[in-house]
Design goal:
194 residues, five-stranded mixed barrel, 6 strands, 6 helices, 26% strand
Length: 194
């Protein structure tokens, strides 16, 4: 497509928009071949059936390419790649919180999609953590916020231990501990303090 800038074609190939055979690196290879022709030396060589010599991307490489190119993925959620490890750590998926008792101890984890600390909230912070099953709403008291401010504000993935609050179907976790969650997957950008 001559109207598209070469960098745009590369991004489209990287995020999977041009990999009609399911091979993103093949699409990247083809874009690079079209961008950098062989020149006079290879003018007589027929290029029919030239296969990409690169291996296909792993699921994590595809996820990284998606986030790099678009800031999101239409594939598996980053937390889905970690679910077995998280279960061993007794982390409850957001979609299972409704089945837990009010005031029970709970641990949740996810990609921080929003951080809010309204002036009218007397220093309380509110986080929304997304996993592959839904969103966990977290309340961070002012003392814990000040103590763990770097973690609350500085990491794309967090693990929160606390107490489940289920007030007539409004479910949240009152945080008692905040821990950065280190994943191989990149994090998206959160919507903070709007």
């Amino acid at each position: 497509v001559p109207e598209l800038h070469a960098g745009n074609l590369e991004t489209l190939a990287q995020i999977g928009a041009l990999n009609f055979d399911g091979h993103r690196r093949g699409a990247l290879w083809e874009v690079a071949r079209r961008r950098r022709p062989g020149g006079d030396l290879f003018a007589e060589v027929e290029e029919v059936g030239v296969a990409c010599p690169l291996p296909t991307m792993t699921p994590m490489e595809r996820l990284r390419s998606d986030f790099l190119g678009t800031g999101l993925t239409v594939g598996r959620h980053p937390m889905a790649h970690e679910r077995e490890r998280l279960r061993r750590m007794n982390v409850v998926p957001a979609g299972e919180l409704a089945g837990r008792r009010d005031n029970s101890p709970v641990r949740v984890a996810g990609c921080v999609i929003t951080r809010q600390r309204p002036e009218t909230a007397k220093g309380f912070a509110f986080l929304s953590l997304e996993d592959e099953t839904g969103v966990s709403n977290v309340i961070v008291a002012p003392g814990l916020f000040e103590k763990r401010k770097q973690e609350v504000l500085g990491y794309p993935y967090l693990m929160i231990s606390g107490v489940l609050q289920n007030q007539e179907g409004a479910i949240s976790v009152k945080a008692q501990g905040v821990t950065p969650l280190h994943l191989e997957a990149p994090g998206g950008r959160s919507h903070d303090f709007h």
